[in-house]
Amino acid sequence: MRIRTYRPDDFFVLRQLQQLAVETDRLAVESVENLLNWLQDAAHEPEANVFVIRDDDDELNPWGQAGTLDGIEGEIMGFTMLELFTDPQAYYFRCVGTVHPNLRGQNAGRSLLICALNRARLVATEFEFEAEQAGRTIYFEALLPTNDAASPHLAAKCEMSLVSEPVPQGVQLYRRVLW
Question: How far apart are CA 50 and CA 105, in angstroms?
């Protein structure tokens, strides 16, 4: 498996993955439209804040840098996107995404979540001092599927706790403090 940042030609595959998540995880149908709008909004910087994981097979392609033949990539098996929300008390880095239902249980979701967490930490360093001076907390959040029994375990691995706030249908909100 390999993680890389989003490319515009991934658009239709991510749409298909989100549609599968709607069906499998009983997410709100609007989540597909929300994803498409988000990816098309340059202000969200999708090329920097969306990550895809591919099922590159290291054993079949043992050449080149990092164990794969340059230019050969497997199919996209999941994605996550990271967005920053603010209010007067805090900053919230929220990640939302999915892994293909047939490919879950292979640590792809965990890898994507850790990737988003690392990106949030990096971006947060840009305003960490200002947040501290203003007494605002910086949080990392993830919307994980309610239907997936692995979600609480995944959240615990990333030291996140369940939060009871209104969220879209089919997901639960998990959070941890970054700073």
Answer: 21
Give pTM, 2 decimals.
0.88
- Distances in Å between the Cα of 22 and the Cα atoms of 43, 63, 157, 166, 172 are 25, 38, 25, 18, 14
The residues pairing with 51 across neighbouring beta strands, listed in sequence order, are: 5, 80
Whether 69 has a pLDDT exceeding 90, the answer reads no
CA dihedral 68, 70, 76, 80 (to 10 degrees): 90
Domain count, the chain: 1
Per-residue pLDDT tens over the stretch 102-129: 999 999 999 999 999 999 999 999 999 9
Q: Which helix (H) or strand (E) holds 18?
A: helix 11-25
C-beta atoms surrounding 154 within 10 Å? 19
Tell me the three state secondary structure of residue 76: strand
The CATH number that applies at residue 109 is 3.40.630.30
21 is in which domain, residue-wise?
2-177
Q: What is the pLDDT of residue 74?
A: 85
More confident residue, 70 or 133: 133
Q: What are the DSSP E strand ranges found in the chain?
A: 2-5, 50-54, 76-86, 90-99, 137-145, 161-163, 171-177
